[in-house]
């Protein structure tokens, strides 16, 4: 089955050796993704509560910026997603629905 991409109409940018708006935003998005990963690791390893709170505030700000950049790229058609096929979703559900007894808080929240 042919999957349809989920994408807005693409905003055209100049195709020159110089960086354009899409290139700059894409670079910023990649940097923000890297930074949120790094802050997540730092949060897991912070042993001092005040440091943890400072890192959490910075992480949240960074994550929000990452989301804003993603939204801009998606709105301009520079970021697309592939739609999932219903059959594949159902197969994954069937495969993993028996795993609810392995959840640390019990199966009550998964149907």
Automatic annotation (TrEMBL):
Regions of compositional bias (Polar residues) in chain numbering: 1-19
Lineage of origin: Bacteria, Bacillati, Bacillota, Bacilli, Bacillales
Pfam families: Coat_F
InterPro entries documented for this protein: Ferritin-like, Spore_coat_CotF-like
Region: Disordered, residue numbers: 1-20
Record-linked Gene3D superfamilies: 1.20.1260.10
Domain of life: Bacteria
Name used for this protein in its record: Spore coat protein
Source species: Niallia nealsonii
